[in-house]
Specification:
Layout (H helix, E strand, L loop, with lengths): L2 H8 L5 H30 L15 H5 L12 H19 L6 H29 L4 H23 L7 H12 L2 H21 L1
Helix pairs in contact: 2-4, 2-6, 5-6, 6-8
Length: 201
């Protein structure tokens, strides 16, 4: 082992538990995307197929999958998850293994995932107000995308990749030390759950 490798091996893993949270969330999102992709293939093969998550008229993966919003780019939206989530998983695993990423790479990942977050909430809005049905696997993607986005944001703030002023960076770091980001995620989850219960319970 080289001297550089020995020094790096002795250094603690930065943001260890944040990367663990990112890994678990992205694995769940990848699982949901895989199931949704398989369901899309089943429906393409046989439009009369009854999916296992077709629980009722309002909790129905099939009804959501048949809507035009579920293939906005001309192919099932779930395919985007099959592309994006392995990248996030790789980032988390590499970081937990001691790898370091350049500022530009992490900011690019943040930008792409911000678009993914906006897309996930757009789909939730469409399902809630226009399609009139909810897909459990889609909801899981929405919840986990929220978590992954927040973990990326936390890391970029703590490492000051956004080039914040010293005062603002110190203030945000103190808030993160109080787990304000985790409470924000929980509040978001609770809001989504409340909306679902209010309309469909």
């Amino acid at each position: 082992m080289s001297e550089i490798d020995e020094v790096q091996a002795k250094q603690p893993i930065r943001h260890k538990w944040t990367y663990v949270e990112m890994l678990v969330s992205s694995l769940l999102s990848l699982t949901a995307s895989l199931v949704l992709s398989i369901d899309a293939w089943k429906l393409a093969k046989d439009p009369e197929t009854v999916l296992s998550c077709n629980i009722s008229a309002t909790i129905s993966c099939g009804k959501v999958a048949e809507a035009w919003q579920s293939a906005l780019l001309g192919f099932p939206n779930a395919f985007l998850g099959l592309i994006a989530e392995p990248v996030v998983i790789t980032i988390a695993v590499a970081a937990l293994g001691g790898s370091f990423f350049r500022r530009g790479f992490l900011l690019s990942a943040q930008a792409v995932y911000t678009i993914g977050l906006a897309f996930a909430y757009w789909l939730f809005y469409q399902s809630y107000f226009n399609i009139g049905a909810l897909c459990p696997w889609c909801l899981l993607v929405t919840f986990t995308t929220t978590t992954v986005f927040m973990t990326m944001t936390r890391i970029n703030i703590l490492d000051n990749n956004f080039r914040l002023s010293p005062g603002l960076h110190a203030k945000l770091s103190r808030l993160l030390a109080l787990n304000v980001d985790s409470y924000t995620v929980l509040l978001t989850w609770a809001t989504l759950a409340s909306l679902i219960i209010f309309k469909y319970a």
